[in-house]
Specification:
By secondary structure, the protein is an alpha+beta fold. Helix content is 45%, strand content 14%. Strands 2, 4, 5, 6, 8, 9 and 10 form a 7-stranded antiparallel β-sheet that branches. It has a two-stranded antiparallel ribbon with strand order 1-7. The relative contact order is 0.22.
């Protein structure tokens, strides 16, 4: 079980006036970036008072959520709701709803899900907490330390061959990209070591070898688009206290042909020209700014995601760190954790390890959320509307209904369900990752599906 300070480092408190701790020796501090973000055109959406979701969560009032699912029959049969390892470590993936006199109005993320998932059914959840929640959201980019500690605590579940493979593969990937990773650290310290075109060319080439770079790349661009877009649609959402989720959804699905089958940001690696063309499809005026922003922001974010807080970035070298796994874990523990976490997913025996490794992290974060009075955790990379249900929270009542959508796009509960939130992860083979990588064997016709409920559209590992 991880201690509260470990999980504090993973969460962003949007009510605080300061940013999370960062490595030493960086040209710009995390507080510098926080100030810049708050002065962006949509920076007020980072404030509790300006963000509808944050305002609701911190008010202590009932929280209304929607969850889309393909597994309504299984949910009815089992009477249980389970979480997804890919959704905030172990939550049930939802979007916010606003209660109006005419029905439940979905957040623009929820409206997008209703439009693009026509074969799913929709559940409405009403959560009534006893106390207001803090404005703390989980930032999955900072989970490296948790991943590393979990791996080290559960190495005995691996065979010697599996353990050797994980360590060697992680080190090998860092060794292959060490030159670019050292360039990122140099840039984070204030140098500019390559032209923008060369930088993006090297970044695009490095992502397939070091998948976490694809996640960082995507989140930097999402951050820029959501904070700087001034389109009429974005302004309308901002007036309602919402970030425009359609921007990063468009970016993801336009960039990778297979994203609709498996939302895998390890495949996100457009080069300079491809990125310009991508953004030009939906907001051309942001293309040049996105290039400049990513060039400046990605090195800083990489340093924060790879090194532990307080570590002097000037003393880190990935050419040296790639000597062996123990050295990598000492120099860049968070990168080592991200690497071993993603390598573990490739093991043939991962379905057998999943209930141990991933459930351990989920149980630990449930404990943290319970202590912090967090009934509905949210994606804290940005408070953009991706929110979940804490399935272990006992100090709140949760009522669930099946809902239908009217012609105005409002949700109307039609059937109340007697459901029990269970703090257990749904079976891996019920997830998009499991279906893609580990197809389930044929089951007897009279056997109920092992999955309860999950639909995680974000890579919030």
């Amino acid at each position: 079980m991880h201690a509260a300070p470990d999980w504090d480092q993973v969460h962003t408190d949007f009510a605080a006036g300061t940013a999370a701790p960062a490595p030493a020796g960086l040209a710009e501090s995390s507080d510098d970036w926080l100030s810049a973000h708050r002065h962006a055109p949509n920076g007020h959406l980072l404030e509790v008072s300006g963000n509808a979701m944050l305002s609701t969560l911190t008010s202590g009032r009932p929280v209304h959520l929607m969850h889309t699912t393909l597994a309504l029959d299984a949910i009815r049969a089992t009477g249980e709701l389970h979480g997804a390892a890919g959704c905030l470590v172990g939550a049930l993936y939802c979007a916010p709803l606003t209660l109006t006199a005419d029905g439940l109005s979905p957040h623009n993320l929820g409206a997008y899900l209703l439009e693009t998932k026509p074969d799913t059914r929709t559940l409405v959840l009403e959560v009534r907490p006893e106390l207001p929640a803090p404005a703390k959201g989980l930032n999955y980019l900072r989970l490296g330390g948790i991943h590393l500690d979990t791996y080290q605590a559960h190495r005995s579940f691996l065979t010697p061959a599996e353990d050797h493979h994980l360590r060697q593969s992680a080190v090998g990937r860092v060794r292959e990209t060490a030159g670019f990773l050292d360039l990122l650290l140099a840039d984070a310290r204030g140098a500019r070591t390559a032209s923008p075109t060369a930088f993006f060319h090297q970044l695009a080439a490095a992502v397939p070898r070091l998948p976490i770079l694809g996640y960082l790349y995507f989140e930097v661009l999402s951050e820029y688009l959501l904070l700087h877009s001034t389109s009429p649609q974005t302004r309308a959402y901002a007036a309602a206290g919402e970030m425009n989720n359609r921007l990063y959804k468009q970016l993801a699905f336009a960039s990778v042909d297979t994203m609709g089958r498996l939302f895998d940001l390890a495949l996100f690696n457009p080069d300079h020209d491809q990125l310009t063309e991508l953004i030009g499809r939906f907001e051309p005026g942001l293309a040049l700014g996105a290039i400049a922003y990513t060039r400046r922001r990605l090195p800083h974010l990489f340093a924060c995601a790879a090194l532990s807080p307080g570590r002097d970035a000037a003393c880190a070298s990935f050419r040296d760190a790639a000597a062996d796994f123990d050295t990598l874990a000492a120099v860049a523990p968070h990168l080592a954790g991200q690497m071993v976490f993603r390598e573990m997913r490739t093991l043939p025996r991962y379905p057998a390890l999943f209930p141990v490794i991933e459930q351990a992290k989920a149980t630990s974060v449930y404990d943290y959320w319970n202590r912090e009075e967090i009934a509905a955790p949210f994606n804290g990379v940005l408070p953009k509307g991706e929110i979940g249900l804490n399935l272990a929270f006992s100090r709140a009542t949760c009522t669930a209904w099946v809902a239908e959508t009217c012609e105005r796009g409002l949700l109307h509960p039609t059937e109340q369900l007697d459901l029990l939130p269970v703090p257990r992860l749904a079976d891996l083979r019920g997830t998009a990752l499991g279906r893609a990588a580990f197809p389930a064997p044929a089951t007897h016709p009279n056997t109920l599906p092992a999955v309860a409920a999950l639909a995680c559209a974000a890579p919030a590992a």
